[in-house]
């Protein structure tokens, strides 16, 4: 009997002392355990588009269910929709008696995004910034870095048809109101307008009388589609101002609060957008700060004419 108890207790003690190194079971965990997935690094620290090719088999995978226990789900839905990307921890930078910065990579098929996530000194999630968003351009190179003063630089380079090298550089700092502030933009090439913007909700139904495309040009539009309920609308906004140096983009769901008026509000997100539908246009107004989704010098605002639907050809008798 004595030996029998030994055989029972040994595996129990071993199991209790073993620390989790993955999140495959989707069980709840403490935020400090979540931080433990990310190895501690010291700035300067950088991440690039090629780093997605260097993920080792030993790199832990954080399931979306675990990730969204600590990070707002809208961070992923903006780039991945309802897909469940694999999330790989990359690095952790801890500012003394201040914020914790987490670098993470998310992959779903060909879609690959590197994020910077910020938690305050109470370990509460505050903001996210996409650092690298892979595209299909073989001529482009993307890198991002954080220096010793916690300034974030995002660099994009692309070889032009004439052989010259075009670049675009943006610098951000995280401020104490919980958003990233754009402090510098440099460019010798308007990289932002080289290709059409992909509308992720383009093929969704638009039976609602308010659904449709409200269009200034290919880089400034509001796309509205039917929601899950008659009282909701799905939308995708993209705008670019000042020759592409100031831009914003947001995808979400808006509730119809009054006839011809819809509002975007999400729990945990300070951003509030209001859409007012006219007979032939849509007016957009930023009611409350949406700095996470735009550059600092511009806002979600303006009037967008409704794009006429192409009439279907009449069936021949």
What does this protein look like?
The chain has helices at about 1-15, 30-35, 65-70, 75-80, and strands at about 45-50, 85-95, 100-110, 110-120, 125-135, 140-145, 150-160, 165-175, 180-185, 210-215, 220-225, 230-240, 245-260, 260-265, 270-275, 280-290, 300-305. The protein has about 325 residues and is mainly beta. The protein has two domains: about 20-190, no CATH class; about 210-305, Lipocalin. It has an eight-stranded antiparallel β-sheet, with helices on one face. Strand 3 (about 100-110) and strand 4 form a beta hairpin. The radius of gyration is 23 Å and the shape is globular. The protein starts with a helix and ends in a 12-residue tail after the last strand. Residues about 1-25 have low confidence and may be disordered.
């Amino acid at each position: 009997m004595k030996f029998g108890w030994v055989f029972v207790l040994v595996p129990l003690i071993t199991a209790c002392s073993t620390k989790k190194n993955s999140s495959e079971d989707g069980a709840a965990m403490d935020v400090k355990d979540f931080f433990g997935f990310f190895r501690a690094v010291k700035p300067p620290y950088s991440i690039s588009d090629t780093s997605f090719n260097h993920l080792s088999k030993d790199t832990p995978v954080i399931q979306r269910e675990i990730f969204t226990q600590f990070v707002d789900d809208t961070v992923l839905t903006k780039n991945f929709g309802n897909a469940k990307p694999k999330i790989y921890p990359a690095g952790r930078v801890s500012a003394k008696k201040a914020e914790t910065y987490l670098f993470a990579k998310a992959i779903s098929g060909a879609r690959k995004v590197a994020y910077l996530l910020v938690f305050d000194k109470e370990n509460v999630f505050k903001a996210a910034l996409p650092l690298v968003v892979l595209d299909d351009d073989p001529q482009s190179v993307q890198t991002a870095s954080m220096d010793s003063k916690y300034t974030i630089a995002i660099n994009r380079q692309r070889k032009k048809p004439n052989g010259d090298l075009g670049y675009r550089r943006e610098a951000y700092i995280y401020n104490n109101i919980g958003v990233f502030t754009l402090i510098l933009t440099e460019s010798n090439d308007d990289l932002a307008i080289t290709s059409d913007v992909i509308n992720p909700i383009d093929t969704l139904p638009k039976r609602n009388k308010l659904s449709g495309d409200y269009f200034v040009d290919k880089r400034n539009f509001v796309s509205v589609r039917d929601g899950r309920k008659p009282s909701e609308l799905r939308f995708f906004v993209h705008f670019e101002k000042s020759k592409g140096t100031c831009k914003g983009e947001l995808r979400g769901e808006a509730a119809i609060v009054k006839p011809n008026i819809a509002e975007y509000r999400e729990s945990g997100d300070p951003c509030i957008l209001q859409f007012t539908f006219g007979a032939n246009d849509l007016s957009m107004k930023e009611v409350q700060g949406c700095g996470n989704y735009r550059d600092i010098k511009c806002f979600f605002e303006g009037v967008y004419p409704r794009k006429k639907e192409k009439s279907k050809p009449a069936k021949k008798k």
